Amino acid sequence: MDSTFKLVVKWSGKEFQVESLSPSDTVGTLKDVIRKLTGVLPERQKLLNLKYKGKTPDDEVHLSAMNMKPGFKIMMMGSLEEEIEAVSLPPEDLPDVVNDFDIPEGEEVDICNREVYLSKITKRISDYKIVERNPPRPGKKLLVLDIDYTLFDHRSPAETGYELMRPFLHEFLTEAYKDYDIVIWSATSMKWIEEKMKLLGVATNPAYKITFYVDYLAMITVHTPKYGVVNVKPLGVIWGKYPEYYSTKNTIMFDDIRRNFLMNPSNGLRIRPFRQAHMNRKTDRELLKLTKYLQKISKVEDLSSLDHRHWERYLSDKHQDGDSKNE
Ligand SMILES: [Mg+2]
């Protein structure tokens, strides 16, 4: 029998191969190896999906007891001592900031009418499987939320998900739930979405319910003349799956990356990214303000008639409910 036990540790966007262990080694030994590979101290390692009898295993538990397949990918959250200090330094320019280009309005329309993209969406509608966590509610509008940098700062080091949660997340979801069904759509795998939602307590909060999660498999690639091929989140997939509930008229999507709603520009609202959680937790009020916006527009007949780029203006204006940009 093969006496080595290969595992992969995914942490901070990188993968580390663990190749020196045997099934008789313990979780404690595994943590030591992870420390050598990543520099994260064992007491700071949070091995998200490592479970023994449904719970986080003690250090004494043998790896063989956990039924991991060879190559099993352990997802870790954890922080280096020096990184915790580093978060108080000025922010570095992260690559996905650069990613968030603006696409001229005319171009957006061009792209969303292209036959080839519509046929990709049609294919997603038939192939992509949505697992409902809770049934859609008749008469409700639909709020589609991105995770990373929208609800959660996934890059800053921390010991608990709670530290990285955008302030007022649960209050925001609780209020939004009154008028909107809530869907989470993240450009990552379903496994990660589930872990993150568990970590933030979103999956289990009794004050609201998430209708379903959507992962990267429902996204499509689109070619833009200026930026080449980009991945986007076409709401048409959801509308095609739930024509009796959701449409361009009653859907709004929050994302920190505008190109994600390239296929449905009138339904997207670009949220300010939540980064550097440790520095910004005390001052970030985006979700509080957006709660008010969602309430204010909840009776608007056609959400796509609003210009969500100016949502803050709308919030401070003395608009009556039902007004639109075409007034
Ligand atoms: Mg994001």
Automatic annotation (TrEMBL):
InterPro entries per record: FCP1_dom, HAD-like_sf, HAD-SF_hydro_IIID, HAD_sf, Ubiquitin-like_dom, Ubiquitin-like_domsf, UBLCP1
SMART domains: CPDc (SM00577), UBQ (SM00213)
Chief localization: nucleus
GO MF annotation terms: metal ion binding; protein serine/threonine phosphatase activity
The reaction(s) this protein catalyses: O-phospho-L-seryl-[protein] + H2O = L-seryl-[protein] + phosphate; O-phospho-L-threonyl-[protein] + H2O = L-threonyl-[protein] + phosphate
Keywords on record: Hydrolase, Magnesium, Metal-binding, Nucleus, Protein phosphatase
Keyword Magnesium listed: yes
Cofactors demanded by this protein: Mg(2+)
EC number: 3.1.3.16
GO CC field: nucleus
Keyword set includes Cytoplasm: no
PROSITE patterns in alphabetical order: FCP1, UBIQUITIN_2
Residue stretches spanning the membrane: none
Domain FCP1 homology: 136-297
Domain Ubiquitin-like: 5-77
Stored CDD domains: Ubl_UBLCP1
GO biological process: regulation of proteasome assembly
Cellular compartment(s): Nucleus
PANTHER family registered for this protein in UniProt: UBIQUITIN-LIKE DOMAIN-CONTAINING CTD PHOSPHATASE 1
Entry protein name: Ubiquitin-like domain-containing CTD phosphatase 1
Organism: Thrips palmi
Source taxonomy: Eukaryota, Metazoa, Ecdysozoa, Arthropoda, Hexapoda
Gene field: LOC117640890
